[in-house]
C-alpha cells in the first residue's frame, strides 16, 4: 500500500512543476522584448544625428546624404616650382681690338672686380713709340714749311701795291701757303692715328663687372680680332634660366618675383623674371623664364638651382581637388539646386595651391558645392546636403 501511494504521488508533483514554469518563461521573454523595444525607441529618438539622419533617409526612400561646402571667395597667390642653370645675365667677351703684340703684364685675374676702362692686358709698344716720335717730327717740319710760306705771302702782299709783285706771284705764294697748311694737317692726322693705334694695343674693360674667365698670360702674343681673352659679367649680375612646362610658362609674367635656392647653398635669393622665351622646345615641351639676380658669391655660373615663382594673385572660390570632376566635356562640379537636387556646373580652374584649386569661371562662391563622392551622383538626383565640419 505504501509503495503504491508513493508511485501515484510522483506524477502529480511533476505536473504541478510544469504548469508553474511555463508562465514564468513567458514572463521573462516578454520582459526582454519590452526592454529591446524601449531601447530601440530611445536610440531612434536620442541616438547620434548621423545615424538618425541615415535612418530617416532610408525611410524617406534611400535619399543619399552628401557633404557640401560654400567656398566663398579667397585671394589666392599662385606658386610655380622650377629648376634651371645659373649664368651671367650679360656676359661680355673681351679680346684685342688693336694690332696685337707681345703681352707684358696681366694685372687682373678670375674673380676680380674691374671698372669700366681699367687696363686688363698691357702690350709691348716699343716700336709704336718710335713711330709716334717720327710722326711728331713730321708735324714740326710741316709746320716750319707753313710758317715760311705764310711769311713769303705776307711780304708779297706789302709789295703788290707798289707794283714790284704781280698778282700772279701773289696767287702762287698763296697756293704754296695753302699746300703747306694742308701738309701740317696730314702730319697731325698721321700722328693722331699712330697714337690711337698704340692706345688700342692695351686691352681695357668695356664695362664694370666681375671677371669670369681669363685666357692670357705674360709673354704670350695676341692678335687683333682673335679668341676672347676674358669674359666679364656686366655689373656682376646673374640669372637663373628656369625651365617651365607650357602651362606654367603661360602663367608667368615679366616682373614676377621669384625665390632662387642654389643646390650648393641653403641660402635663398630674391630675383625677378625679366624675360620669357617666345618659343617652346619641341622635344622637351618646355620654355625658359630668365630670372635676374643681384651678385652674390653663392651664385656661381653653371651651377644648378631651384626656384619658386609667383604666378600672380586672383580672388576666386577655392575648392579641394575632390570637389572638381573631369570628363570629356571638361571640368565641372555638382551644386545643390532647387528641392535639393544635384545640378552639374561647368567650371574653369586656375591657380593650384596647397589649400586647393581656384575656380576662375563657373562659380560665384555662394553655391553649395558637393565636396566629395560626386562621381556617384547624376544631374537631377535628390540628395540630403550636410555642411562640412
Question: What this model shows, in words?
Answer:
The chain has 389 residues and is α+β, with helices and mostly antiparallel strands. The protein folds into 5 domains: 45 residues; 80 residues, conserved putative lor/sdh protein from methanococcus maripaludis s2 fold; 81 residues, Elongation Factor Tu (Ef-tu), domain 3, CATH 2.40.30; 66 residues, RNA polymerase II/Efflux pump adaptor protein, barrel-sandwich hybrid domain (OB fold (Dihydrolipoamide Acetyltransferase, E2P), Beta Barrel), CATH 2.40.50; 76 residues, Helix Hairpins (Orthogonal Bundle). The protein is built from 5 helices and 23 strands. Strands 2-11-14-13-12-15 form a 6-stranded antiparallel barrel. α3 packs antiparallel against α4. It is elongated, with a radius of gyration of 50 Å. The N terminus is likely disordered. It comes from Tsuneonella suprasediminis. One of its GO terms (molecular function) is efflux transmembrane transporter activity. InterPro entries: Beta-barrel_RND_2 (IPR058792), BSH_CzcB-like (IPR058647), RND_pump_MFP (IPR006143), YknX-like_C (IPR058637). This is Efflux RND transporter periplasmic adaptor subunit. Keywords: Membrane, Transmembrane, Transmembrane helix.
Amino acid at each position: 500500500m505504501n509503495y503504491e501511494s508513493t508511485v501515484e504521488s510522483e506524477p502529480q508533483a511533476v505536473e504541478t512543476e510544469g504548469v508553474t514554469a511555463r508562465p514564468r518563461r513567458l514572463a521573462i521573454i516578454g520582459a526582454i522584448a519590452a526592454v529591446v523595444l524601449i531601447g530601440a525607441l530611445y536610440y531612434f529618438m536620442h541616438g547620434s544625428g548621423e545615424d538618425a539622419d541615415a535612418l530617416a533617409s532610408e525611410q524617406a526612400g534611400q535619399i543619399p546624404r552628401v557633404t557640401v561646402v560654400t567656398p566663398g571667395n579667397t585671394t589666392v597667390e599662385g606658386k610655380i616650382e622650377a629648376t634651371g642653370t645659373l649664368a651671367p645675365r650679360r656676359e661680355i667677351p673681351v679680346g684685342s681690338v688693336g694690332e696685337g703684340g707681345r703681352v707684358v703684364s696681366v694685372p687682373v685675374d678670375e674673380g676680380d672686380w674691374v671698372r669700366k676702362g681699367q687696363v686688363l692686358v698691357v702690350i709691348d709698344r716699343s716700336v709704336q713709340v718710335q713711330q709716334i716720335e717720327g710722326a711728331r717730327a713730321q708735324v714740326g717740319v710741316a709746320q716750319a714749311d707753313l710758317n715760311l710760306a705764310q711769311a713769303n705771302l705776307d711780304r708779297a702782299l706789302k709789295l703788290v701795291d707798289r707794283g714790284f709783285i704781280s698778282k700772279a706771284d701773289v696767287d702762287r705764294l698763296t697756293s704754296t701757303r695753302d699746300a703747306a697748311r694742308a701738309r701740317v694737317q696730314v702730319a697731325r692726322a698721321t700722328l693722331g692715328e699712330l697714337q690711337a693705334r698704340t692706345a688700342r694695343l692695351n686691352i681695357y674693360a668695356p664695362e664694370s663687372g666681375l671677371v669670369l674667365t681669363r685666357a692670357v698670360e705674360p709673354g704670350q702674343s695676341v692678335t687683333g680680332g682673335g679668341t676672347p681673352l676674358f669674359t666679364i659679367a656686366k655689373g656682376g649680375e646673374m640669372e637663373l634660366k628656369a625651365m617651365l612646362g607650357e602651362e606654367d610658362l603661360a602663367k608667368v609674367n615679366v616682373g614676377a618675383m621669384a625665390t632662387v635656392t642654389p643646390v650648393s647653398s641653403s641660402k635663398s635669393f630674391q630675383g625677378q623674371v625679366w624675360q620669357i622665351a617666345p618659343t617652346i622646345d619641341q622635344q622637351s615641351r618646355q620654355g625658359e623664364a630668365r630670372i635676374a639676380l643681384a651678385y652674390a658669391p653663392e651664385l656661381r655660373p653653371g651651377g644648378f638651382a631651384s626656384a619658386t615663382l609667383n604666378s600672380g594673385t586672383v580672388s576666386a572660390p577655392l575648392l579641394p581637388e575632390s570637389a572638381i570632376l573631369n570628363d570629356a566635356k571638361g571640368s565641372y562640379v555638382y551644386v545643390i539646386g532647387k528641392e535639393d537636387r544635384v545640378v552639374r556646373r561647368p567650371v574653369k580652374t586656375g591657380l593650384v595651391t596647397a589649400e586647393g584649386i581656384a575656380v576662375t569661371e563657373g562659380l560665384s562662391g555662394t553655391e553649395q558645392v558637393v565636396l566629395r563622392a560626386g562621381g556617384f551622383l547624376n544631374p537631377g538626383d535628390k540628395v540630403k546636403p550636410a555642411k562640412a565640419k
